[in-house]
Amino acid sequence: MKKNFIARIYIKEGIVYTTAKMDETIIDLEGYIRKLCDINIDEILMIVMDEDFDNKELAIKRIKEIAAYAETDLSVSFNIERAEDVKKLVYAGCKKVILNLSKQSNWEMLEDVSNRFGKDRISVTVDDINSLGVYRVNAEKYSTDLYVFTEENTESIAALTSLAVNAYLPDVSLEKFLIVAQNDNVCGIFGEVIDLSLTEVNQIKNVCKEKGIEVNSFEAKISWDELKVGGSGLIPVITQDYRTGDVLMLAYMNKEAFEKTLVTGKMNYYSRSRKGQWEKGESSGHFQYVKALYADCDYDTILAKVSQVGVACHTGSYSCFFNEITSKSYIEKNPLKVFNDVYDVIKDRKVNPKEGSYTNYLFEKGIDKILKKVGEEASEIIIASKNPDSGEIKYEISDFLYHMMVLMVDKGITWDEITNELASRE
Q: Could you tell me which residues are beta bridge partners of residue 16?
């Protein structure tokens, strides 16, 4: 069983904090969540501190925001009052919702929410770990794992259940961490040991690997010796933004840079001018976090897909490739690029009206007109689908998508939000 490294964040009154003391506010929420994903955290545990309805609704809104940025599993500890709360949290983007079985109403709804949303979506906890035996049979039947928020002995807790245990570990020592991680029943670890060591997550994972503990880390399926390096001992690396596909830079790796990249999860290169290995961003802070590495068909070039912090080029440009030599116009075929381009035109029309523009006509008429057109175009798709000529459907779907994008712009919804939502569905 691979061990998950779980980072915690706290939500109270719509504000997100890094600790339960709520003394450190996360100002740049997107940046913080993306960094947790970049440094190889396996799960983000959101602990909602609110009790009253209004603040819980605000917390759900914040969870949706976090889900839009996150590229790893989200779990949530929430004051569940009814099954509808679980539904809202699942729809907000939570991979797992934690039910406290010490609360009678949660115990009573466990079977219902498990059947509705899937056993893998439901986790459990209890305030008094000694009472776990009372709930064990149904807990194991309707949930996948157990979160332990106490400092009690992990081995004794694990012996009480066959559920996978996510263990709270306040001790920050690596020695204690390794003892807990070696327990077969432990699937995840959270606590100060993770929260205070975020920058060393990959290093801790490598120590675990050395001890035979399975973790989610960068495993090289192709070794350095299998790559075809030049006479100088270097291999060229093409670095690409993993989200946009933009080529950022071309650099070189030697064996040391290759191995350091795998260990740290950050791109390391060999500088031919300085004649030495270096970590991208070590002086500028513009790190490149590894998402994937590929060798080409001849094994003599590496393609690196990365999450770029800041800019890639020393000139201040995002990409090093900005000096145009020649070009010709062409029709963009990348679906998401097309959607974003059309969306940007619609958005510009709203900000900078153009006389005679149909798009501006829709915005001027308002939301009722926009909704009427969306409904009409949806109906046109249904009618066209009855026609044996599939070409007509293509035009009707295009009309629908255009009007839908007008609605998206009017409501401030972006394609990133839509694609993030779709990507989170199974």
A: 11
Rounded to an integer, what distance in angstroms lies between the CA atom of residue 298 and that of residue 295? 8
Please state the pTM of the whole predicted model: 0.80
Using the predicted structure, report yes or no on whether residue 14 has a pLDDT greater than 70: yes
- Residues with Cβ within 8 Å of 270's Cβ and at least 6 positions away in sequence, in order, are 234, 251, 252, 253, 254, 256, 257, 276, 277, 278
Instruction: Report how many domains make up the chain.
Output: 3
DSSP annotation of 72 reads S
Q: What pLDDT, on a 0 to 100 scale, did the predictor assign at position 387?
A: 82
Are 139 and 50 contained in the same domain? yes
Question: Cα(291)–Cα(170) distance, rounded to whole angstroms?
Answer: 30
230 and 366 within one domain: no
Confidence of residue 417 (pLDDT cuts 50, 70, 90): confident
Token representation of residue 99: 């039910």
Per-residue pLDDT tens for 103-129? 888 888 999 999 999 999 999 998 877
- Do residues 188 and 277 share a domain? no
Residues 6+ apart with CB under 8 A from 311: 286, 317, 318
Residue 290 pLDDT: 95
Q: Which residues pair with 11 in a beta bridge?
A: 16, 48
Q: What is the largest CA-CA distance in the chain?
A: 74
Which of 176, 210, 244 finishes a domain?
210
The helix (H) or strand (E) run that includes residue 104 is helix 104-117
Quick check: 203 pLDDT over 90?
no
Count each helix (H run) and each strand (E run) in the chain, helices first. 15, 15
Q: Is-contact 88 81, C-beta < 8 A?
A: no
Q: What is the pLDDT of residues 271-323, one digit of tens each?
A: 998 899 999 999 999 999 999 999 999 999 999 999 999 999 999 999 999 99
Task: Please tell me whether residues 251 and 344 are part of one structural domain.
Answer: no
Shared domain check, 134 and 108: yes
Does the residue 419 lie in any domain? yes
From the number of C-beta atoms within 10 Å of its C-beta (0-12, 13-18, 19+), residue 9 rates as buried
Q: Which of 210, 236, 261 is the last residue of a domain?
A: 210
